[in-house]
Structure formats: structure tokens, C-alpha cells
Design a protein that fits this description.
Distance between the termini: 38 Å
Structural class: alpha/beta
Bound molecules: pyridoxal-5'-phosphate
Strand order of the largest sheet: 1-9-8-5-4-2-3
Order of helices and strands: HHHEHEHEHEHEEEEEHHEHEHEH
Shape: globular
Helix content: 25-40%
Length: 390
């Protein structure tokens, strides 16, 4: 089990001194990176040259394959570039349209725009906050070539339906599973399967605040050998092994540094405990706030979902965030709908996306690092209770 510093700074909890006493030294960040001695030691050995020759990236990619069950995994620079890499591997062409959920991190549509593809924004479904297939059906045109499905915060809609939809419309399916490491989908008739492995290519991010991290980094997974070969060519200047300066194909440099892959190998060893902890944290918060009708949760089955962020939905997230900040608790607001972002709004003026607008106006991410203690979680719960009692 991982541990971090003591709980000493949390000395003035709500239940100790009364609801409105706030301590100066309280500081619970919304997210924290978490690296330990193991990563430090491995990096140090690497830099001293003591670990030369070990195939870091292959070890990291094996860990990605083992956890996700995908046949092939390739490391990449970050979860934005890896999505673009997936689109390039599928040979999408400028002007092609890609269906993208309207509630996601901006990297999802940007990964399309950067190579001249047109992200087509689709509203989300209420139950899961993932792309709504009913809305997607209305948006398909002859130019639509792919769907980028985002299992937001480790939750997904019905993946059997998503796959069937893409098949029906002859679309490539890319899963932006940046937030879904350790999360699964279990169909009515199937065993549970890791998210990111249902489509042509899936992408995972290992940026600083993900459940495990390589500081920056990503991995692509696929069960298709052809896409695997293309992803590898794109990553390494189009080299095919004929020599370092023979390039039969066009390619880039999307290679993850070995030192980051090495950090990833150590982090993967910690994934099972962190998954368990995230589930416990989510359950503790949900149960702790169950008596407050003002706080809404998205239905979450922790037997398949590892929540990345502890997300709640309330009438006035700004007021709650201000109250929590005074109590030393950092939060973050849910993603603004993509169609309201300056860089995309010109294409969507006058359009309404009611579900993504509704949840953007209500969403708040509570502290979510897996190193949060139970006492800190209880303090957060008490602070929220105090806000609604006031
Ligand atoms: C859904 C989603 N897609 C893509 C990304 C981009 O990943 P990265 O920060 O590794 O570029 C993120 C990052 O959080 C994300 O949440």
C-alpha cells in the first residue's frame, strides 16, 4: 500500500471546533501527482546508466496490454497527440467529419482540428455524460468518417450500441479513454471488457494528474495488426527497420522517452491499489452526502468503473466552490460545453446542447487524488454539509 505524509495539518476539522472554524493550514488540492521512492530510484539508476539496454517502452507497453487486454499497445507523447496519431493511422483526410461529445476535455476535438478534420459536436446522455447516440444519428452525413467516443470519468454508455452504431454508418471508432484506465464495460451478454478496447483504436493519457502518470505520456491500444503497424510507423519517422535513415513511409516523432516509460512501469505496479482506493473514496463521498438532496451523483457501478474525479452536481457550484475554498478545499468546475469555447463557437451560434449545458452549469470536481485520507474525505463531506445547513 502507498502512503504519504501525516494527517497532522488537518488539525482543525469541522467536527472538532464547529462548522465555521476554518484553519489556515488546511490545503486539500483538487488533484496531486503521486510518485514515490520506486520511481525516484529507477530514474536515478537510468540516469547513471545502470539500467542501460532494458526495453523500457516495451515493458510499459506490456503493462498497458496486460491491464487493458488489448492485443497491441504503443506508447506515445501525450493523450492529445496520441488521438491525432490514431486519426492519422486510420488515414482520415482533411475535411472528414468526426463525431465528438460536446462535454469533454478540449483535447478531444482539438486532436481532430489540428490535422484539418472537422469535429462535429454531439450532446451527451444524462445517465452517463457520454456521447448520445440518438443525437449522433441526426448528425451523420456522407462526410462523417469516425466517432471519437469518450468514456468520461471512467463511465460509458452501452458499448455494444456504440460499436453497432459505428458499424451501421461505416465509421471508425476511436475511444478517447484518457480518463478510463481501470474502467470496464459489461454488456448484457458479455464478460466485462476494458474501455478503450471496443473500437479500432483506444487512447490513454498518463499526464500528471491521471490515476497513474508518466508526468506526460500516453498509450494507444488496438486489436488490429494493421492499425498497430501504422501507429508504429507514425511514431518513428516511418522507419521500417531497413536503417536509421531509410524512410519508406511518412512519419513523425511521437516516441515516449524511455525515462518516462520507466516511471510508467513503476506506476503500473501501483494501479491495482489506486483503483481500489478511488472506488472506496467515491463510495465514501456518495454515502457521506446521501442525506443531502441538493447533491446529485451520476449513477456509478464501482464494480466496473474506477472514478477518476469525484464528481458531484449541484445548483450553484460556484457558491459551493467558494465556501470550500475558504475551508482549504480546492475544487474544479466541470468542462464548459465545447460549443461555448471561443475556438469552436462560431460554428455553433444559436445551437443548443441542453444536456451538456445543464451538467456544465452544475458540475463540480471535489478533491480526487488517490492519496486522500479518509479523514480528509470526511472533512470535505462535513464542509459540504455545513454549506447546505447554513
Ligand atoms: C478526455 C481527455 N482526452 C484527452 C486528454 C488529453 O490528454 P493529455 O493531457 O495527455 O494530452 C485529456 C486530458 O486530461 C482528457 O481528459
Amino acid at each position: 500500500m502507498e502512503t504519504r505524509g501525516s494527517f497532522a495539518s488537518l488539525c482543525v476539522a469541522y467536527n472538532k471546533y464547529g462548522d465555521d472554524k476554518i484553519t489556515d493550514n488546511m490545503n486539500i488540492p483538487q488533484m496531486e501527482a503521486w510518485f514515490g521512492e520506486e520511481e525516484a530510484q529507477a530514474v536515478s539508476l537510468y540516469l547513471k546508466g545502470n539500467l542501460k539496454g532494458r526495453p523500457w517502452n516495451a515493458e510499459f507497453e506490456k503493462a498497458v496490454g496486460d491491464v487493458t487486454g488489448a492485443s497491441f499497445a504503443v506508447s506515445s507523447l501525450n493523450g492529445t497527440i496520441s488521438l491525432t496519431q490514431a486519426l492519422l493511422a486510420l488515414s482520415l483526410q482533411p475535411g472528414d467529419e468526426v463525431l465528438v461529445p460536446n462535454s469533454t476535455m478540449i483535447a478531444t476535438p482539438n486532436s481532430c482540428s489540428i490535422i484539418g478534420l472537422k469535429p462535429i459536436l454531439i450532446d451527451i446522455e444524462e445517465e452517463t455524460l457520454c456521447l448520445d447516440l440518438v443525437q449522433a444519428e441526426k448528425a451523420v452525413t456522407p462526410r462523417t468518417k469516425a466517432m471519437m467516443y469518450v468514456p468520461l470519468n471512467g463511465r460509458s454508455g452501452n458499448m455494444d450500441d456504440v460499436v453497432a452504431f459505428c458499424k451501421k454508418h461505416n465509421l471508425f471508432l476511436i475511444e478517447d479513454a484518457a480518463q478510463a484506465l481501470g474502467s470496464y464495460y459489461k454488456g448484457k451478454h458479455f464478460f466485462k471488457r476494458h474501455l478503450g478496447t471496443f473500437g479500432d483504436i483506444g487512447s490513454f493519457s498518463f499526464s500528471l494528474f491521471k490515476i497513474i502518470s508518466t508526468t506526460q505520456g500516453a498509450a494507444l491500444v488496438t486489436n488490429n495488426q494493421l492499425w498497430y503497424e501504422k501507429i508504429k510507423l507514425l511514431k518513428d519517422f516511418g522507419r521500417t527497420g531497413k536503417g536509421p535513415d531509410i524512410h519508406d513511409h511518412f512519419g513523425f516523432n511521437f516516441k515516449m522517452s524511455g525515462i518516462l516509460a520507466l516511471i510508467g512501469v513503476e506506476q503500473f505496479k501501483k494501479l491495482p491499489w489506486r483503483m481500489k482506493r478511488k472506488k472506496e473514496m467515491y463510495t465514501r463521498i456518495k454515502e457521506g452526502l446521501a442525506a443531502l438532496p441538493q447533491v446529485e451523483f451520476i449513477k456509478t457501478d464501482v464494480s466496473v468503473t474506477t472514478p477518476w474525479f469525484m464528481d458531484i452536481f449541484v445548483d450553484d457550484p460556484k457558491a459551493l466552490a467558494t465556501h470550500l475554498k475558504k475551508a482549504g478545499i480546492d475544487t474544479r468546475f466541470f468542462y464548459p460545453p465545447i460549443h461555448t469555447q471561443e475556438i469552436y463557437k462560431k460554428d455553433y451560434s444559436g445551437r443548443s446542447f441542453p444536456v451538456s449545458e445543464y451538467y456544465a452549469a452544475r458540475g463540480l470536481w471535489l478533491p480526487s487524488s488517490s492519496q486522500l485520507t479518509d479523514e480528509e474525505i470526511d472533512y470535505i463531506i462535513k464542509a459540504i454539509e455545513a454549506f447546505y445547513r447554513a
